[in-house]
Amino acid sequence: MLISENGRSKCQIVIANKAGRQVRYAASQLQQFLFEIGSCRIPVIEATAEDENRVWENSIILFEDQNLGPEEFCLQTKDNNQLFISGGLPRGVVYGVFTLLEDYLGCKWFSSRVSRIPKREIIELPAISERQKPAFEYREPYMRDAFDPAWCLRNRMNSNKSFIPSDYGGHMRWYNFHHSFYQLINEKDYFDEHPEYFSMVNGKRVRERSQFCLTNPDVVRICTEKVLERIRENPECTVFSVGQNDWGNYCQCDNCKAIDEAEGSQSGTVINFVNQIAEEVEKRYPDKLIHTFAYRYTRKAPRSVRPRRNVIVRLCTIECCFSHPLEECGEHNGDNLFLRDLKEWSAITDRLYIWDYVTNFSHYLLPFPNLNVLEANIKLFHRYGVKGVLEQGNFSFGGGGEMNELRAYVLAKLLWNPDYGARRAIDEFLDGYFGGAAQPIGEWLKLVHDAAAPYHARIYDGPDAPYYSDELIRKGFELFDRAINLVSNEEERARVEIARLPVRYLAICRMSPDDPARSVLIDKFADDVRAAGITELWERKRLEPTIEYLKNNWLDRKREIPRWSYYM
Ligand SMILES: [Zn+2]
Ligand SMILES: [Zn+2]
Hints:
By secondary structure, the chain is α/β, with parallel strands linked by helices. The protein has three domains: 2-132, 2-Layer Sandwich (Chitobiase, domain 2), CATH 3.30.379; 138-352, no CATH class; 353-568, no CATH class. Helices cover 38% and strands 14% of the residues. It has helices at 21-38, 92-104, 149-154, 181-184, 187-190, 217-233, 254-263, 267-284, 335-348, 374-383, 404-416, 422-434, 438-452, 470-486, 490-510, 517-531, 543-552; strands spanning 2-5, 8-9, 12-16, 44-47, 59-64, 73-78, 82-87, 108-109, 115-116, 122-124, 129-132, 138-142, 174-175, 200-201, 204-205, 239-241, 289-294, 311-316, 352-357, 388-392. It has a seven-stranded parallel β-sheet. Strands 4-3-5-7-6-11 form a six-stranded mixed β-sheet, with helices on one face. A hairpin with a 2-residue loop joins strand 1 (2-5) and strand 2 (8-9). Helix 14 (470-486) runs antiparallel to helix 15 (490-510). Bound molecules: zinc ion (ZN) (2 copies). The site of one zinc ion has 7 residues, from helix 7.
């Protein structure tokens, strides 16, 4: 099917004159990118009721189809002169258009700032017949660059953090996303009068860093009222969090303890508690969902209580090893137990989500050897019926971090379709993002992963982890010197320089504090970090004190330095 030739339009885009916003936005995006590819403006025609029986030849016809799922679409050509793009509400048609542009016309959106829109004198389409929907209902590469709404939409991610306007198809919006107990009942307002609302630990009600006494009926009542109020006030949100705080100290009073012992896990009281809230929510808001965590002390599934149908359980991989696929890691303390937990939760809920980790959080710039596990783990989640996946990377305001843009791209491909091929996605990204420098950078990544293969890697490893070595650093500098010589423009050079920061960071961290060159190297490194817009090297820690601390300390793990005020 011919779309345009030497800047002259050979077809038209047809939508109904009563088409909704999704179809109008999809048509405008299709028109815009076809213009960028072929330097040709394809007209958009609005069909009226009188056109009902008309056959639109040489046309791309966009319409909503209620029989398709909310993110499902069909691309169907007919007689070499018609292409139908149909999709469900609210995002199917938009996704259909971006899939056409990506899979059939070669457009790629690698990061929020780097894309490839090929130029063509002739735009032609082959015969197409396909229907697609995502492997997961919720897909979020949780790193700063990937919050960009246009990037998310074009890569078919519906991230909470993307804030995609509803006119463009919207996204899956959560009201509070994280640990939320203290937002429901705060110890400052309640503890003095009602210490019994909070955890009993070693015979005492705990005020600081506490959880709730989950079997206290007043706690259930107050939290239910708060959640209902939030649902009323935030109709645009789908999911409301009732999640344990990010520390231990669960309640050990007799009532809570009895349930947890019978259930074989602290998730017993949590699911019991969340179910009561979810039951009230369901009566008034049957489409809204309540989210809770299976995290640290609640990671193991309960024996008998079952999450209600409107409860999302989000199982977290925080303790796991990330250099080996979850199913293959031979380590027994934690990782095999994670598989047990995945299986157990998967057997008792249809709304199992995963919160996964894809960056070193102690050192955002350390090379993180997890690229070989992404595909295997996402396939594993899919096989166990997981419905949503968040992949947490560097979410700080300045973003950056080691290869976060690469990871976001690869994850987007795999979360839509776990069979896409991580290798294919990595190669696409390296070529598109680093141009001529792709080969040595790919070699660098391979070296890092080969070095880590014999070891378990965790998200809080330090620069003294056994998989880093002086030899690795030496080869890294060599490869990046080669990479810099292969770039073809200033943008590529800047990207390669940012990709080299992790080697420099690793080298500096491992240098002896007595080496007089160390301080000078840190200053130069810090200048380049600031120039790259990076705001954190260590999760939540302020940049300038971090740099000072680096200068004066060596391989230190305590690192008591100020947090950014926005995390407080
Ligand atoms: Zn209790
Ligand atoms: Zn391992």
